[in-house]
Amino acid sequence: MTFPTARQERGHDRDVTTSLPRGTVHCDASAVEAAGELLRSQSGTWVETLLGDGESQASRALAVSIIDAVLTAPRGSTVDGADIVTDLRTRRAAMRQRVLRWRDSESWLSIVRQRSPLSLIAGCWLDTVSQPATEPAVVVNHLGAHHLALKGDGVITNSLEATRRRALEEAGVHLPRLRASDFVARSEARPLTAVHAAFYLALCRMPASYLPEVVGVHCAYFLLGLDDAMFGRNPAIDEDELVSVLELYAELCAESPSGRADWSRMVNAVSAVVALEDEYLAMLDDLASWQEGLSLDAKVAAIVMRHIPFAGKQHKNIKVGGRLLTEWFADPDTADVEGFLAALRSSRLVRRRADGSVRFLDAIKFGGPMFGIFDAHEAATFAEWIQSIHDGAEPAVDISPCRAGDSATQRWRERVADQARSGRVVTAEAAELDDRELFYRLVNIERFPHVLPLAKQRAEQGLRDAEILFEHGADGRYTDASFFEYSPQALLERAERIYWDKLVEPYRKLDTIPDRDEVIFGQKLTAFGSLIDGAWVHRIGGVGRFDHRADGMLLGIYADEMGRGYVTKNHITLIRRVLASMDIHLPHIRSEEFTEQAELPDIYAFPIHQLSLALFPESFYDEIVGYNLGIEMLGLGEMRLHEIQKLRRWGFDTVYEEAHLTIDNFSAGHARQSVDLITVHLDDIARHSGDAEVRRRWRRVWRGYASFAYFLEVDLVKSLNRTRQLSSEMII
């Protein structure tokens, strides 16, 4: 894809933000306690939590302690902040030489497998760097363009994770999905691998709070490019693009009041990545050396130990050395592997038959009862071991446990525990808040995770309230949320009727234009929604969740809303440009000053509902898909055309309205894409879960659409609520 250049972002009123206020992180008492329990668990559990839980307070509290532990760790050497790129190039050459020296060794497959968690999550730190709190900062737009590229420009199979997964499979490493319960175990991740992965995953939970660090981590990780070297692939992001971001950030820091401190933070993050990669290479050296020193018997023992946890009831009738296999492996932690191998050595399973065949080897071949249990490398090791038995080799099972990276892991655990006591995470309960304060905290959710329960309640309440339109939605002025039974054709027909009957056909050019103040007030009424444009979908498709076709389609829509890296096309930039043409200049919505602004009316319910939905992409995925249809179709027809006419009459900027009128078109634009992605989403559900599940999930999708209509169709909702209230009073 084509990336914007720093030159293209000059010459206009640009957002030169290089960092956001960090401060303390507020979590309720139960979340702080849960985070403490997580910190005391194994580092693999940190990875599983950060991969699987993107919606809780505890995962954010955990993330803060891990990030701060890494960033404040003492380091033997630091990167030259005056010439970062040259420094990284020099270090890159040495690092690649260190890892590639093992390429032709029998340890290479284990090294590739060990690296796989880091390879597959690479770039996760960009997942939510673009959000209401950071847009439309210039550096965020550039990082957003890189994020889109890493996600395959919205094509799931072209994403970095997908391409690296294919490379791993070509190398013989087959792993489950990142969020699978056995991913960490199947990757055979050492505790230190898990610590490093946890740092990058933690950063993806708090990117706004650590914006300078995200810039540094991103550029350093991909400039060093260890994974690209290991797989023999082209760089995930071209070096020129990474250098361009560093140059841009330096330029922005020169303009920013906090720029000097932010540049230092960014350089520190680069140094942290270099230190982590050095530490990781040392662990890989130790791992490879340990494996190279194993006897053939010890290598077979290691294979057996890997598979012990999966030895189940299907082995209930198999005996080795007079004992059932289920008895040998009853407790994986105390299994007598050495005794088992001694018994296996003398069993008929490994003896050569008259025809030269061996029962065990036949069993693990295609058509045998154990086919597919061992990969090709493991099967070859067994074959070599059995041949050595036939050749009369003496057993040498003495297998010392692998300790690669363990001492470093212990140091990290101690540092993370210290950071948890540093006071960065404070206990706070979310009392009732007025809408202004709640809006402020939702925008700054990284600092105020304790409002997440309130946000979920608001989202659920909004969705429940919206179901009143399931019966009466046909009377909407711009929408029709009345419920209908789903089929792809029925959905398309409904969308087309809304488009023609409610958005296009009613349009007549205005005969009279409201006065100037009324036009300005009309823009103020809708400004809240515009200032968080795209927010409803900004958390879709994060690490471990970019695996549905609809994810890619939603990411493409969000990328368009944010200008696909070009800040001049970013819709937040556009609405600010329109407001500026009316001499309306607002502080950023993330700032405390915004809570005191008097320009916009106190109509917070709609943006609060949208932000609340967005914070729970797993819990409300179906509803977000439906909500997306409502908001994208609003960009069409009468409302936009009238607004353009009114703005032009008084000489105001029309760029925001015009952008939506084109990009949301029903032929191939966002409106039509939104219909298609619902169909794709429900089609995937049908193939995996059946028609009954489609009906259940469709109701949730349409409830999401209705929740958008509920906040738009103000007059209809008021009328329905009055009628409902009168009916209730009559019953009483």
Q: Helical residue percent?
A: 55-70%
State the shape: globular
Give the biggest beta sheet.
Answer: 2 strands, parallel
Mean pLDDT: 92
* Number of DSSP E strands: 4
Beta-strand residue fraction? under 5%
Q: What is the SS-derived class?
A: mainly alpha
Distance between the termini: 65 Å
Q: Strands across the major sheet, in which order?
A: 1-4
- The number of distinct structural domains comes to 3
Instruction: Write down the Rg.
Output: 29 Å
Show unreliable segments: none
Please count the helical segments. Answer: 33
In short:
With 732 residues, this protein is mostly helical. The protein has 33 helices and four strands. It is globular.
